[in-house]
Amino acid sequence: MVLKKDGLLEILEGNRRLTMRVVEAFPEEELFHYATADKLRPFAEMIKEIMNIESAYIRGIALHVWDFQDSFAAISTKEDLISACVAIREDTRKLWQEVTEETLEVIEKDPFFGPLQSHFSRLQYGLENEIHHRGQGYIYLRTLGIEPPEFFVRN
User: Are the C-beta atoms of residues 43 and 25 closer than 8 Å to each other?
Assistant: First the structure.
């Protein structure tokens, strides 16, 4: 079985739905200020990173505009963070229509992180980064005594 463009989008969507349930499980204060160790970041900072990567990659892949910016640094409320996540994903869905199967196979140097890779691999990296940080969010929730969402539910 070969993963097609629409199948990839559904995997991204299912994972984002789960990530958003993790965000929603956090109390606002802990979302922005709690970390389990000094060298770790609060979960809200991880979510901002996820959004920055998604925005930069989808714009680069769909529009050939490669620009990585920290567009969400000023967000300081749970409501604004959730709204920004929704807006970024809506933008991704719109730009997804510009992406073709052939586009996903294009291999070029990554303008942000360096190595040669396909656009598909870039999106895979973004997904793996999201999953990694979501796992950290699960640990944070558990250390706060909050039961995280079931990890296998993607709808």
Answer: no
> For residues 36 and 139, what is the distance between their CA atoms, to the nearest angstrom?
8
pTM greater than 0.90 (yes/no): yes
- Encoded tokens for 36: 């389990």
Phi first, then psi: what are they for 52, rounded to 5°?
-60, -45
The distance in angstroms from the start CA to the end CA of the chain is 22
pLDDT of residue 103: 96
CB atoms inside a 10 Å sphere around CB 27: 12
SS3 assignment for the chain: CCCCHHHHHHHHHHHHHHHHHHHHHCCHHHHHHCCCCCCCCCHHHHHHHHHHHHHHHHHHHHHCCCCCCCCCCCCCCHHHHHHHHHHHHHHHHHHHCCCCHHHHHCEEECCCCCCEEEHHHHHHHHHHHHHHHHHHHHHHHHHCCCCCCCCCCCC
Assign residue 117 a region (left: φ > 0; alpha: ψ between -120 and 50; beta: otherwise): beta
